[in-house]
């Protein structure tokens, strides 16, 4: 990660990581300090939450969600975790073990929800039943169940582990298509509304490489593999394109995301308002929706009626045969 | 350019070019028809000009400017050309020859302006004198002199050869930095204002590969080399990043640009208005400016006072030593 003989910017001890974006190298201790400072800055600047708020962290067992859970405790916030069993074969089995181990070792509370046992479907089956890319039903299911768990448990805010690379890639995809509604809502904090909890992303000032390094220096075991169903999705192509530019001009990715929030998001305020208007309640579950029945209840109806499909039989690019 | 045995979508004759974005292959005749149709569509849809308008084409001697001049005549428009001698060593010498040959062979009128003999500087010297990247003083000089030539000659509109790849790359750069003012003004037509002529880009629906193929099938000789001073500029990195995505998903580049114009440009109308307000006249040349003296006159003052610098001595990345 760093050339031999490099020294920490802060203490001149041997450096363990080079961060070209910050034009600096750091030892393990001062790298952690930088991470804590970046996360505290995001929480304070965007008013994500304050001590005493009841916080629920969406935990997948990957580096980002375990890093954010760890960092919140480091910064003195109490937070419980929520793990959703998505039923993606061995990948889900393993990710659940990492999440449970992390919580057990630290005496933290982990709430678990299983799509298959509680809602009668899993993601491979949903992908096949809906004939859409798996990421579509997966995202829809997670958003709905994060909201529901937060409301059921009386949490003020849902925390997700989205990092700078995630947000920059999503922003790039939305800008490539100029999806005004999606752009308007791509913020590090989405305010509570219509009975939904606030949603916040405290890691948006840390890159993917930095959250991985955080886990390594902190001794956190996490599931390294990417989700097998995400293979070939466009998101990964957008990350690669941004990484190529970042390598030429370190800091481009951060300024792309942060300048969007600062300069462009205010211009989109009217579009954001319009996208939040005219929402009713789902006749089946009561969640906010612009239709009669919300998209999650429609997914449950479709996917739970389908015979279970093992992940190995689902094509990666689409849910179709 | 195309696999052996491929056939033209229109007439089934052997194809000479494959256009994945249009999901089709074409023979030379029907490829030209497609180009004429795309350019006519751009001119009509964005109301660029109409028969009878006095048109001035900015001609560099490269493929795009010669293609657009040729296409306008094909479509029945009269247009004169304007060539600016930038003084970039052999590159400028050669580009001038291509522009003059094109005009002579077709009996077209080419107006010529020389930076060195009329304004006392050239681009390599301007880059050194201003200590900025050469593209900066080059763009400023060209914009000013296009406007001036159009006003002096009584032209209604200035045509430039910007193609889809150019516009998409500039758009990407402006979006990476969220330069709201630049984004607001990135349109295929800039209306006349403050005594400036209308400016239009009829090739925005054709890719770089398509304008090159147009020149080849039409037998137009053009300067193939890129400007030696543009080497290493960020624009080329943005083109490469977009090309990587286009290869995976043909049509992405066109939808990126065209959706911007359709969906995002209206959202930026207020910012556009603000950027056009409060403009006065340059005390030296009378051109619109927000300061006392316009940027072009300031450049002329700085660059013409500097001893001439040959292009070979100017670093490509900056004008500094």
How does this structure look, described?
The structure is a homodimer of 321-residue chains. Chain A is an alpha/beta fold and 321 residues long. In chain A, 50% of the residues lie in helices and 11% in strands. Chain A contains 13 helices and 10 strands. A 6-stranded mixed sheet of chain A has the order 5-4-3-6-8-7, with helices on both faces. In chain A, strands 1-2 form a two-stranded antiparallel ribbon. In chain A, strand 9 (280-281) and strand 10 (288-289) form a beta hairpin. In chain A, helix 5 crosses helix 13 and helix 7 (164-177) crosses helix 11 (252-267). The longest helix of chain A is centred in the middle third of the chain and has 20 residues, at 134-153. The first copy, chain A, is globular. Chain A starts with 16 loop residues before the first strand and ends in a 17-residue tail after the last helix. The relative contact order of chain A is 0.16. The model of chain A has no long low-confidence stretch (mean pLDDT 93). The interface between A and B is medium-sized, with 26 and 26 residues.
């Amino acid at each position: 990660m760093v050339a031999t003989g490099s020294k920490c910017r802060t203490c001149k001890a041997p450096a363990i990581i080079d961060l070209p974006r910050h034009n600096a190298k750091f030892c393990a201790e001062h790298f952690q300090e930088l991470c804590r400072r970046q996360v505290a800055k995001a929480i304070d600047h965007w008013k994500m939450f304050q001590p005493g708020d009841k916080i629920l962290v969406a935990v997948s067992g990957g580096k980002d969600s375990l890093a954010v859970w760890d960092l919140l405790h480091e910064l003195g916030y109490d937070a419980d975790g929520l793990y959703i069993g998505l039923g993606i074969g061995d990948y889900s089995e393993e990710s659940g073990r990492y999440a449970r181990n992390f919580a057990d070792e630290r005496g933290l509370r982990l709430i678990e929800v299983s799509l298959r046992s509680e809602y009668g479907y899993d993601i491979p089956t949903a992908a096949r039943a809906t004939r859409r890319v798996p990421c579509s039903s997966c995202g829809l299911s997670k958003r709905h169940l994060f909201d529901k768990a937060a409301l059921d448990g009386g949490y003020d805010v849902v925390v997700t582990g989205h990092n700078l690379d995630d947000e920059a890639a999503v922003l790039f995809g939305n800008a490539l298509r100029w999806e005004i509604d999606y752009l308007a809502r791509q913020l590090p904090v989405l305010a509570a509304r219509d009975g939904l909890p606030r949603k916040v992303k405290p890691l948006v000032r840390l890159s993917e490489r930095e959250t991985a390094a955080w886990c390594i220096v902190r001794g956190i075991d996490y599931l390294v593999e990417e989700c097998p169903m995400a293979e070939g999705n466009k998101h990964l192509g957008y990350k690669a394109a941004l990484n190529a530019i970042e390598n030429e001009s370190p800091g481009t990715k951060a300024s792309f995301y942060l300048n969007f929030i600062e300069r462009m998001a205010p211009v989109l305020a009217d579009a954001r308002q319009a996208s939040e208007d005219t929402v009713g309640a789902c006749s089946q579950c009561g969640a906010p929706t612009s239709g009669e029945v919300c998209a999650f209840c429609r997914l449950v109806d479709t996917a739970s009626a389908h015979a279970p499909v093992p992940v190995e039989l689902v094509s990666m690019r689409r849910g179709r045969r």
